[in-house]
Amino acid sequence: MPKRDDIKHVMVIGSGPIVIGQACEFDYSGTQACQVLRAEGIRVSLVNSNPATIMTDPEFADATYVEPITGEFVELVIARERPDAILPTLGGQTALNTAIALHESGVLEKYGVELIGANVEAIRKGEDRQLFKDIVAKAGGETPRSRVCHSMDEVRETVAEIGLPVVIRPSFTMGGLGSGMAHTSEDLDRIAGSGLAASPVHEVLIEESVLGWKEYELELMRDKHDNVVVVCSIENIDPMGVHTGDSVTVAPAMTLTDREYQKLRDLGIAVLREVGVDTGGCNIQFAINPDDGRMIVIEMNPRVSRSSALASKATGFPIAKIAAKLAIGYTLDEIPNDITLKTPAAFEPALDYVVVKIPRFAFEKFPGADKELTTTMKSVGEAMSLGRNFAEALNKAMRSMETKAAGFWTAPTFTDVDEALEALRIPHDGRLYTVEAALRLGATVEQVHQASGRIDPWFLDEIQALVDLRAEILASPVLDAELLRRAKRSGLSDKQLAALRPELAGEDGVRVLRHRLGIRPVYKTVDTCAAEFQANTPYHYSSYDEETEVAPSDRPKVLILGSGPNRIGQGIEFDYSCVHAVQALRAVDFETVMVNCNPETVSTDYDTADRLYFEPLTFEDVLEVFHAEDSSGKAAGGPGVIGVIVQLGGQTPLGLANRLKAAGLPIVGTSPESIDLAEDRGLFGTLLAENGLRSPDHGTATSFGEAKAIADSIGYPVLVRPSYVLGGRGMEIVYDEPTLRGYIERATEISPDHPVLVDRFLDDAIEIDVDALCDATGEVYLGGVMEHIEEAGIHSGDSACSLPPINLAAPHIAEVRRYTEALARGIGVRGLMNVQYALKDEALYVLEANPRASRTVPFVSKATAVPLAKAAARIMLGATIAELRAEGMLLPSGDGGATPPGAPIAIKEAVLPFKRFRTLAGNNVDSLLSPEMKSTGEVMGIDAGFGQAFAKSQAAAYGSLPTSGKVFVSVANRDKRSMIFPVKRLADLGFTIVTTSGTGEVLRRYGIECEIVPKHYEDPSKKNAVELILAGEIALIINTPQGSGASARLDGYEIRSAAVTADVPSITTVPGAAAAVMGIEALRAGDMTVRPLQELHKLLRGDLA
Amino acid sequence: MTSKAILVLEDGRTFHGSAYGAVGETFGEAVFTTGMTGYQETLTDPSFHRQVVVQTAPQIGNTGVNGEDDESDRIWVAGYVVRDPARRPSNWRSTGDLGDRLAAEGVVGISGVDTRALTRHLRERGAMRAGISSLDLDPKELQQRVLAQPQMLGADLSAQVTTGDRYTVKAEGEHRYTVAALDLGIKRNVSRRLAARGVTTHIFPASSSIEDLLAVSPDAVFFSPGPGDPATADGPVALAREVMRRRVPLFGICFGSQILGRALGFGTYKLGYGHRGINQPVFDKTTGKVEVTSHNHGFAVDAPIGERIDTEFGGVEVSHVCLNDNVVEGLRGLEVPAFTVQYHPEAAAGPHDADYLFDRFVDLVEKKG
Question: Where is this region: CPSase (chain B) (predicted)?
C-alpha cells in the first residue's frame, strides 16, 4: 500500500526557540521530516521562529516561514500556502498545541487542512489526565490513584483522601513545567497554586506518590495497518521522582526479565491502540514497584519527543523520519531500514551495546535557584554515550558533560560516608559522584540503595565494581597491560587513571604507556540489529574490544568537532555551524567525519556526515578517533585526515585546539596561536595599539589588590570576568569596591593561569556585534553588523539585536569595517570571527574579538542570505573569499556590511528560562538581565519595518505584545526623562498607564494621565502593583531598576518575579521600551504579513547581484 | 580472579576470555541470539541442545535466575558465550545468580569475549562447530577436538530431548479440548498458552505412534519445537502424515513446522546462520499485518511463496514469511486442517504478537468439531 496520493503539500510546524524541555531534538526530527517529505515529491512549507535550526535553512523546505508559532501567524501562513495537510507531531508540545488551537478555532476546517500523523481525539486522550486514566484501565493497566482538580479546594480535598506525599502535574504543559512533589501542605499550596496557573486549562492532576519506584520508557511506532513496533526501552537510573529529562537513563532496560519486559510491551501497545494514535511515534512512561513488580502507567506523549531523539540515536532507528513516512500513508513493512538497507523498518532494534544519557544542568547561571531535582525539568542539555558495557558507557557519558568533574576521581567530593549518604537523600546534579563516594567510603550497596531513594542495586553494584577496580589500581605495584586493559574496558579515561597513579605523570603519561602496550580502542557500529545483518552506515562508537569496524577509505578526510551537550551559552547555534561545515565540505568531496556526543542534534544524525563518531569531546577520545580515521585512511593509500575543524563547535573543541595541535593533528582554520593571541590581553593590546583601535581601559588581575588598583585607575563601573569563557560565565558589572572584593573572593579559581579581566564599563553605549570571514589572502568579508537593542552591559546572547543596525550611519559602518579588517588580519583569522564593539559618544571601542564561529552565525546567515559557516569551512580548507564569491556562495560583490535598500529588518530576541527556577524558599529567581548569559534560545522576527519585525520577535519569544490594556510603569530616576516619550505614546494609543508615585509625579507633569498604585511595601490597604500583576490586570510592564550593582538587583525584584509568574511581558531597559512601542504600533495597524525566507533571500541576493 | 578460557571455532578463529559457569570443556554448534531479554528462557529451551549460544546483548545475568522462567527442567545449551556477566543480580523475583546456576548444572561458558566480532564472523561464514575450554588453553589442540565433533547437519536429536513418559498439562478453568503433543523438545509455555484456552495437553515421547496419540482421543495434534536437522526426523514425518490422513487438526511450531513441511512433500535446508532473536518481523499473508516474533531456527522449509501448491493432502500455501529475508515462516493447509509456523508464538522469551495463533488453533479445532 503505497503513500497517499491526495497529499501534495504538507505544512510542518517546528518547535520554536530552545527552551528547557524543548531543545534541538525537534530540529533533528523536523529536519528529517522535511527531507523525507520532499524526497517523496511533496511540497513542504515550514513554520519555525528559531533561526538557529537546520530545518529553517531555505533548502530544507519549499517555503520556509521564520515566523512566530502562534495561531495568528500560522493562520497567515496557511492562508498564503493553502497546504493539504499539517504534520504537527514533530515540533514538540509547541507544534501540537498550535495545531490543536487551529483546529479548535476552525482555521483548519476553513482552509480544508487535514491533520496527519495525529488526530485531535488521540491527542486529547493522551494529554487529558482523566481520559488517559480511563484508557489505561481499558487497556488492562493501572495508573496511580489520583484526581483531576480545578481549584485549590479540590486539591486539598483530594489530598485528604490520598495522603501526602503527592505529585502535582498540570495539564498541557511541556517538560513537566509547574509540576512537583508536595511533602507538606505548604508545598501543596505553592506547587498546586502555580501549577493551576501554568496550565492553560487551569487543571492539575493530584496523584499518589510512586516515589522510589523504578522508571521506564518505551518508544513505540504504529502504522495505519495497526502494526506496532517498540523501538527502544529506556530505564532511568534515578527512580521515580526525578523528571526523566533530568534523570540519568540507560538503554536498553537493564533490570527486567523477559516476562516483565513483555508485560510492559503488551501494555504499551494496548494503550497506544486505545488512545488511537493513527500513525507515528509515541512515548509511554511506566513505574514499577521494586518490591513486587506492580506496574503503573505514568503518561504518554502522542508525538515525537525528546526521548524519541535519544532512542533514534541510541538504536539507529530514525523515529522522526519513519513517522513522517507513516503520516503520508506508508506502512512499516514498506519502509526500508536505513542502516541495513535490505531489511524493513518493521522490526524492533536489537542492541549489542549499552547507552547512557546524562543531563547537563546550568544551576551556576541562576544563583539562589533550588538545585533539588524534581518532576519539573531543569536541565538544559544532555550527553549520550555508547559502550560495550554499562560501565564503559557511563564513564564516557560522565566525561562528556563539559563540567569541572570529568568522571569519578577527577574532582573533590565527600570525605565522610555519613555526609555522602545524607546528601543522597535529595536528588541532585552529579548524584552518581555522591553514590561513588559513599560506596568508596564504606557504605554498602544496600545502604546506598536506601539513602538514594532506591537506585537499583544492579546499577549501584556496577559503580561498586568501579570502586573495587580503583582499589586494585591503587594497590597494584605497576599498572600492567592486563590491569590497564581492564580499566579501559570499564571506560576509565587516561585522566582518571592519572589521578590514581601520579607516578605516571598525568594523562599524557598514561597515554604513552597505553600506546606502548598497544591498548587502543576499536570502533564498533550502531546497526539496529546486533550484527545480524551487514550495516551500511558508518555510525561508530569506541570500545576497548577486539575487532574494529572502521572501513578503509582513501578520500581526504576532515574531522569536525561538535559542541557537546547544550548548555546556556553554547547551544544549537554551534551545532548549526558544524552541520553547515559538513554540508559544504561534502559538496566539494571531502570525506566528513563528525565527532559529537549530543543526542539532540542534527550533527549526530548518521545521515549528516559521511561518518559519525558518537564520542566524548575530550582530548583522549578525539585523539583516538583521529588515529583510527587517519591510520585507516593512510593504510588505504589515501592522505588520511587532512584537517581538523575546532572553530565551529564553540568553546568545547576550541579548548582542545592547543593540545591537539601539539599532538600533531592538522588543525585547519585560525591557528591555536592566533586563538591565544585574541585571548591574551598583552598581545591583543599590542595588536589594538599598532592598528590604532580603541578599547575600554583595562587590566588583568590575579588578586584583589591588583584588581582594586586597576579599578581605581580606570574608574568604576568596571566589567570583571574570568578569561577564556563563553556565555559571559562569571561576568559582572561592578560599581564599587566592596562588590569587587566580593567578586574576587567568590572567584575561587583565580590564578596566574586564570586571571580576572577588569575593563572599564561603558555606560549607555550602543553595543554592536559583527560576524566576519577572513581568508588566507587577508580579504575580510563582513557577514553582518548587528546593533543590540539593549545597551551595553547585557550579555549579547540575552540581548535583542537588529540587522541591519538601524541606528548606525555610514561612517559608523565604515569604522566598524576598518576595525574588523585590522583585527582579522592582525589575529590571522582563517574562517569566522566575531567581534563585539561598543559605540559611545561617536567613538568605537573593541570589547572582545573571538576568532571562531559565534552564536549569531545562523541568525546572520538567515537575515542576509549568505551561509557564513559553510564559507568558513571552505576557507579553512583553503578556499579564498574571491573563489567563494565566484562560486556564488558569497555575494559577488559587497558584503553583509551594506544591506540593499528595501532589505527586510531582522530582529533576534533571546528566550529566558526564569520560569523553571525557584529559590529554596520557593520564590522565583531574579529575571534581571546582566553580563552573564542566561537565555536558552532565540527567535527571529523578520519583516519590512522595524516595528513589525520587533512585534514578531516578541510574539515568537513570549507571546504577543498587548495592543490595549494597562501598562505598569516604574522606572529608575536616571531613566525618567528618556521614558517620557514611549510612555506618552502608549497613553496616546489608548493604554491605561499604571505607575508608582515617583514615576507618576514626573509623568503627570508631562500631562500623561496615570493611575497611582502603592509599591508592595507602601500601603497594605490598597491593591499594589505586584497584586495587580498576579491578578492578570496588567498587560505590559516597563520596569527599569533603580540604583546600580547589588541594589539594582533588589529593586523591582518583586515586580519582575510577579511578571514571570503571571507571564506578563516585562521590559527592563529604555531602548527595549521604545522598541516595544514601535512593535505595538505595528500590531495595532493590523497589517502583519508573512513571507517565506526563499522570497526574502531572493530579494536580498537579487538586489545585489 | 577468574580463570582464563578460550573459544575456538572450527575454522580456527579464537577468542580469549574468562571462564563463566562451570570450568571444563564443551563443544557444540556456535550460534548467536540477539534477544536483549530472556536469557533464562533461552538457556532452558531444548531447541538449543548441542549448541554453543552467543548472546549479542552484552550485559547478562542482571536479573539473576528464578524458579518461574525455565522453559524445561534443565539448561540445554552446550556452552554459553557472553561479554559482561553481572556481578550481582537484582530483581524482586530473583532466587539466585546465573553464573552459579550454570556452574551447578555443569554448563561451561566463557565471558569477556568480543561477542560482536564473533557474531559478525558467524554471520559471514555461517554457524559452525565450536569448543570452549577453561582447561586447555591451546587453540590448535582445541580446534582438533572441535573438528572431531559431529555436524548439526544430519543430527537427530529428538530422542535426547524428549520426555521419557507421557505427562499431562491440565486446562485452566473449564476443559474444552484435548490435544496430543509430540515432544520433540517442547517448551513449557506452549502447554501454558493452550491451557489458558481450556486445552488439556498430553505430552508424548517423540517415538510415539499414531495409536499412542489417538489413545487419548485428541481433538487435535501438536508437533513441538526442538533441536536437530528435520531431514533426519523420518518417524515424526510419517506420524504427521498419519494425522493428516485422519484429518485430525494439526498445529506445529518450529521443528514441528519443518516436520509438517516434509510430510507435505517439501524439502528442508540449513540456513547460513539461522534466525535467533526476539525481534524478527513476520508478515502474515492472510491479514497483511506484521508481527514481531521470537525465532530460534537454523533450518527452514523450502516451499514456493505466493501460490497454491498441490500436495497429496490438497492445496497448501505459505501463510507467513520473514520480512528480513523472505524465509518461509508458516504453512497452511487449504483443505487439510493443518497449519504450522516456523517461529515461536509461545514466545518465552519474546513478544506476544503471535499469540493469536493459539486462538487460530482452537478455532480450527472448534470448526472441525
Answer: 1-177
Domains belonging to chain A, first-starting first, are 9-118 (3.40.50.20), 143-355 (3.30.470.20), 390-516 (1.10.1030.10), 522-666 (3.40.50.20), 697-760 (3.30.1490.20), 962-1064 (3.40.50.1380)
Angle at B146 between CA B145 and CA B148, to 5 degrees: 65
From A227, A254, A524, residue closest to B116, measured CB to CB? A524
**Domains of chain B with bracketed CATH:** 4-147 (3.50.30.20), 158-368 (3.40.50.880)
What are the pLDDT digits (tens) for A97-137? 999 999 999 999 999 999 998 888 888 887 787 889 899 99
How many Cβ atoms from other residues are within 10 Å of residue A1020's Cβ? 8
Which 103-122 residues of chain B touch chain A by CB within 8 A?
Answer: 114-117, 119-120
Task: Judge whether A576 is closer than 8 Å to chain B, CB to CB.
Answer: no
Q: Give residue A913's identity as a one-letter amino acid code.
A: P
Bridge partners, A251 (sequence order): A355
> Of A254, A396, A235, nearest to A311 (Cα)?
A235
B346 a catalytic residue: yes
Q: Which residues lie across from A939 on neighbouring strands?
A: A909
The span from the CA of A952 to the CA of A47, in Å, is 13
Q: Which of A158, A268, A170, A875 is nearest to A577 (CA)?
A: A875
From the number of C-beta atoms within 10 Å of its C-beta (0-12, 13-18, 19+), residue A518 rates as exposed
Tell me the residues of chain B between 312 and 331 that have a Cβ less than 8 Å away from chain A: 323-325
Q: Which residue has the cell 501598562?
A: A967
pLDDT of the residue at B1: 47
Using N-to-C axis directions, what is the helix angle for A976-988 and A997-1005, rounded to 10°?
A: 70
Which of B29, B254, B317, B320 is labelled catalytic? B254
DSSP codes of every residue in B17-30: EEEEEB-SEEEEEE
Contact assignment for B93 to A293 by CB distance below 8 Å: yes
Longest distance between any two alpha carbons in chain A, whole Å: 87
Locate A71 and state its grid cell: 495561531
Active site annotation includes B344: yes
Residue A314: is the preceding peptide bond cis (ω within 30°)?
no
Window 337-356 of B: residues touching A by CB (8 A cutoff) are 347-352
Kindly write down the DSSP assignment for every residue of A74-131, as one continuous string.
HHHHHHHH--SEEE-SSSHHHHHHHHHHHHHTTHHHHTT-EE-S--HHHHHHHH-HHH
Residue A233 cell numbers, joined: 526501552
Q: Which residues of chain A have pLDDT under 70?
A: 1, 174-176, 724-729, 747-750, 920-922, 1016, 1042-1051, 1103-1105
Q: How confident is the model over B179-188, as a mean pLDDT?
A: 98
Asked if the Cβ–Cβ distance from A352 to B57 is below 8 Å, we say yes
Spell out the SS3 assignment of A422-435.
HHHCCCCCCHHHHH
**Cα–Cα nearest to A247, from A363, A378, A410:** A378
Give the three-class secondary structure for A508.
Answer: helix
pTM (2 d.p.): 0.94
| Three cell numbers, residue A167 | 505529585
Is the bond preceding A804 in cis, omega lying within 30 degrees of 0? yes
| Cβ–Cβ gap B58/A354 under 8 Å | yes
Respond yes or no: is residue B254 known to be catalytic. Answer: yes
CB A943 within 8 A of CB A896: no
A258 with B57: Cβ contact below 8 A: no
Helix and strand counts by DSSP (H, E) for chain B? 10, 20
What pLDDT score does A125 carry? 84
- Among residues of chain A, what percentage have pLDDT more than 90? 71
**Per-residue CA distances from A491 to A385, A604, A709, A721 (Å):** 11, 21, 48, 36
